[in-house]
Every structure is written in structure tokens, then in C-alpha cells.
Write a structure and sequence with these properties.
The protein has helices spanning 12-21, 26-37, 52-61, 133-146, 166-177, 197-204, 221-227, 230-233, 236-248, 268-281, 303-315, 336-341, and strands spanning 5-6, 62-63, 68-74, 80-85, 91-99, 102-107, 110-112, 127-130, 153-156, 189-193, 211-215, 254-260, 284-289, 320-323. The chain is of the alpha/beta class and 342 residues long. The chain folds into two domains: 5-63, DNA polymerase, domain 1 (Orthogonal Bundle); 68-341, TIM Barrel, CATH 3.20.20.70. It has a ten-stranded mixed sheet with strand order 3-4-5-6-9-10-11-12-13-14. A two-stranded parallel sheet has the order 1-2. A two-stranded antiparallel ribbon has the order 7-8. Strand 12 (254-260), helix 10 and strand 13 form a beta-alpha-beta unit. Helix 1 (12-21) packs across helix 2, helix 6 (197-204) runs parallel beside helix 9 (236-248) and helix 10 crosses helix 11. It is elongated, with a radius of gyration of 21 Å. The two termini are 21 Å apart. It binds iron/sulfur cluster. Residues 113, 115-117, 120, 122-123, 159-161, 194, 334 line the site of iron/sulfur cluster (SF4).
Length: 342
């Protein structure tokens, strides 16, 4: 199985080249691409428009969907967490987050994470490997076709740091966006980063206008370095400068994610620093109450504490949204379920 290539790692052009090298005309690649991304076929035997010898040849070369469902957990709030086994035995998580008309898939980009943010379950077991473009794309196909979710939005915010796997991430985004396939709108995709500045700079030059969100979690360098060691390498001043460059290029919008942890980053002083950064970047702040991880000492704030912090920001003319921590009852904070299996 492992010598088979993941078909979902191929762009249409690459697939055409590959099929041509196998002696097939280019239109066969389009048929395969449409079958996978528009009809949701995950088995070559189901391609009624392909001749049998070609189906057999393709099945000897490619695997369409390399993800195998290991476990699924549904939360009372509608969030569903899928744990997938990869072909080498590692696990990744993908989370479906329904909210009104929206159905958002939260996608993983790495197995584990090398950034070791103090509050996060994904970093606890360290970094294992990058996901291939195909493994990223296949999470979307699994949720859409295998589990029948009519996805409206994609966020690259699950396990791993997306900008630490930039090449595969951008390739996956191009494949998902291809109008001859899934045709998922760039404006409905959001990449979330802990602040990898070289990645933000490269994203600025990316041809598709995807959304960017930056996990801030503290507006004070010392505190942020304690919570997010990446801040030692890419401190706040440089991060804000890179973010400013990013929004200047083509009027892009930015969101700042802020996980509120009780008695740690929920002070008035923190809110003042955050408001200054948000105003400078004309960014919306997304406030999220911390979702506790059993092995970690951090606590979730009371609802009143979240509301108070939001009010402090609003009083300073910052647009605030409150994101519920979803699926608290099913360990939906990123990396919690995979960590148990890894
Ligand atoms: S918060 Fe993101 S960057 Fe930090 S350890 Fe978790 S997955 Fe990695």
C-alpha cells in the first residue's frame, strides 16, 4: 500500500503529465479529477466512464483516499471530531464545526507540532512529520463525500503549524480551489499561524486571496514567549510588522486569535496591548475561552471574565467576536485525541 502514490497530491496538470507518461490522453486525467472532486469517488472500480484496463492500471499506481477512520466523537454542540489513521500508522484529527448555516472543517497540516506552545495538546508529543498535500486535501474529501457534510469554510488550524509545511499547504489550497475539481473559494479558506514570519511573507505573494489569522494569545513579549516559544524567534514587533505588510498587499483582512486563559492573559493590561496591535492591523479579535487539556495546568476563564475582556477591547474600538470552544466534551482542542493514540 505504501508504494502507491496519493492521487490527491496531484494537481490536474501533474495528473495529465503522469497519465500521458502512461500512454493515456489528457482528457482521461480530467475524468479522474472530476470523478474524485466532483463525484466523490474513492475507488477506481466506481469510475463508470473509464475502461477497465485503465482502472486497473490506476489502481496499481494510486490510492485515492489514504485516510482510514479510526474513531469519531460527536459533541452535544454539534461538533464532530474525526480521527484518521494514515498509511504509516500515524494519526491526524479533522474537526467539523457547524454554526448556523456554516459548516467549517478544521484541518490538520502536520502530525504533531514542533512549536510546543505551552497550552496546546498537539505539541505534547513533539513533531512527527509533515502531511502531504494529498493528506490535507483528503481530509476535505472525507468530510464532504464520506461523511456527507456540505462544507462552507475551511480553516487550517488543526494539528500542526500550517506555515511550517508551506509547500504542501499551498499545493493543497490550489488543488482544493481548482474550478475543474472541488472549486472551493479562496475567500472561504483561512490559514492560521502561530507567527511564522517567513511563511507570512511568502503567503503575501501567493496568487490566491485566502484569509490569514494569527494566534496572538498575549500582547506582551515576555508572557507570549512563555506561552508560545516561537515568540523568541519571531517576537511581537517583527510579527506585527510582517502582518502589516501582509494586509497592505491587496487589502487583505486579518484576524487575531486570542485564547483566554484564566489569571494568565486576561488582565486589563493585556487587553490594552492587544487593542493597540489590533487597531494598528485593523484586525478583528476572535476571543476563545481556553479548552482545558488534562495534562496541562491552565484553566478556563468564567464566562463573565471573557465578556469583561471583550468589553475592554470594544471600549478601545476593536471589533471582537466570541468563538465558543467547541466540542469541549469530546476533547476537540487540537491534538487531544490524536495524542492519546500516537
Ligand atoms: S498552538 Fe499551533 S503552533 Fe502551537 S503547539 Fe499547538 S499546533 Fe503547534
Amino acid at each position: 500500500m505504501s508504494q502507491l502514490q496519493y492521487l490527491t497530491s496531484f494537481s490536474l496538470t501533474e495528473l495529465q503529465d503522469r497519465l500521458q507518461a502512461m500512454g493515456e490522453p489528457a482528457y482521461r486525467a480530467r475524468q479522474v479529477f472530476q470523478g474524485v472532486y466532483q463525484r466523490g469517488l474513492s475507488d477506481f472500480a466506481a469510475f463508470t466512464d473509464l475502461p477497465r484496463p485503465l482502472k486497473e492500471k490506476l489502481a496499481g499506481e494510486f490510492i485515492i483516499n489514504p485516510l482510514e477512520l479510526e474513531q469519531m466523537a460527536s459533541s452535544a454542540d454539534g461538533t464532530i471530531k474525526y480521527l484518521f489513521r494514515l498509511t504509516d500508522g500515524y494519526f491526524v484529527e479533522t474537526v467539523l464545526i457547524p454554526s448556523g448555516e456554516r459548516k467549517t472543517a478544521c484541518l490538520s497540516t502536520q502530525v504533531g507540532c514542533r512549536f510546543r506552545c505551552a497550552f496546546c495538546a498537539s505539541g505534547l508529543n513533539g513533531f512527527k512529520r509533515n502531511l502531504t498535500a494529498g493528506e490535507i486535501v483528503s481530509q476535505v474529501l472525507a468530510l464532504k463525500f464520506t461523511f456527507g457534510h456540505n462544507l462552507t469554510n475551511l480553516v487550517f488550524m488543526g494539528m500542526g503549524e500550517p506555515l511550517d509545511n508551506l509547500e504542501n499547504l499551498l499545493k493543497a489550497i490550489r488543488i482544493l480551489n481548482d474550478e475543474r475539481g472541488l472549486n472551493f473559494g479562496a475567500r472561504r479558506m483561512t490559514v492560521s499561524t502561530a507567527g511564522v514570519i517567513p511563511g507570512i511573507k511568502k503567503l503575501k505573494d501567493f496568487e490566491l486571496q485566502i484569509n490569514l489569522s494569527i494566534s496572538i494569545h498575549s500582547a506582551l513579549d515576555r508572557q507570549r514567549s512563555r506561552l508560545m516559544p516561537i515568540n523568541k524567534k519571531y517576537p511581537l514587533a517583527e510579527l506585527v510588522e510582517a502582518a502589516e505588510d501582509y494586509i497592505r498587499s491587496g487589502g487583505r483582512q486579518l484576524t487575531l486569535e486570542y485564547i483566554l486563559i484564566r489569571d494568565l492573559n486576561d488582565s486589563l493590561y493585556e487587553s490594552e496591548g492587544l487593542a493597540a496591535i489590533a487597531r494598528r492591523l485593523r484586525a478583528k479579535v476572535n476571543l476563545i475561552a481556553y479548552s482545558p487539556v488534562p495534562q496541562l495546568p491552565y484553566r478556563r476563564p468564567e464566562e463573565a471574565g471573557v465578556a469583561r475582556f471583550g468589553r475592554w477591547l470594544e471600549e478601545r474600538k476593536v471589533k471582537v467576536t466570541f468563538r465558543q470552544s467547541r466540542g469541549v466534551d469530546i476533547a476537540a482542542a487540537c491534538g487531544q485525541l490524536a495524542g492519546k493514540f500516537q
